[in-house]
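Thread amino acids onto this structure.
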């Protein structure tokens, strides 16, 4: 039997899905659409009482975990609760779709990049500290990396233009080989444990 908090969370996620509906599932999600999505995510993330740590427990020794909150029927919009319990330094990467991140607890430092017009290598641009009240978003062509070093746990909401539980492609930059590599982006997605 779902708890009162889980029910309240489902209702708030439903409101979020209705708010972002005009902006998702289209082939041409724009920077303006992403700004509207960011605003909706900040409203949802402000409801910290709906995301208690007991519902999103660490499954093992992995440094992070992704919990599914909502995926639309077409699989063209997918909202996750992301928790990080240990240091993570990701390579510069693209998601193969648009993405937006909003802070819930602690800080997820995001590094954005521009591309060298001659070599296509990522060049650091802006560093954005994603904390409560802050959101960032990326078009499919935008590049970022995350550099998380506590305080732990770090909790964020992640929203993508496709489900991460199904195979898709991500691109990451290998600084040693000095080239972009494509790899399957299918990740393990957990369900919140209702208490
Ligand atoms: Fe990313």
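Threaded sequence (195 positions):
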């Amino acid at each position: 039997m779902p708890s009162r908090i889980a029910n309240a969370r489902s209702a708030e996620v439903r409101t979020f899905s209705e708010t972002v509906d005009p902006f998702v599932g289209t082939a041409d999600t724009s920077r303006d659409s992403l700004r509207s999505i960011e605003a909706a995510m900040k409203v949802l993330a402000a409801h910290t009482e709906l995301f208690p740590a007991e519902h999103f427990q660490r499954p093992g020794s992995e440094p992070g975990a992704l919990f599914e909150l909502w995926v639309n029927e077409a699989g063209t919009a997918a909202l996750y609760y992301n928790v990080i319990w240990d240091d993570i330094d990701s390579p510069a990467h693209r998601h193969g779709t648009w993405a937006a991140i909003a802070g819930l607890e602690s800080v997820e430092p995001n590094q954005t990049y521009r591309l060298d017009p001659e070599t296509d290598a990522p060049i650091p641009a802006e560093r954005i500290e994603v904390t409560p009240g802050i959101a960032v978003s990326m078009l499919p062509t935008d590049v970022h990396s995350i550099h998380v070093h506590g305080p732990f746990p770090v909790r964020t909401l992640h929203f993508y233009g496709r489900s991460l539980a199904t195979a898709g492609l991500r691109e990451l930059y290998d600084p040693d080989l000095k080239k972009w590599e494509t790899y399957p982006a299918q990740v393990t997605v957990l369900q919140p444990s209702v208490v």
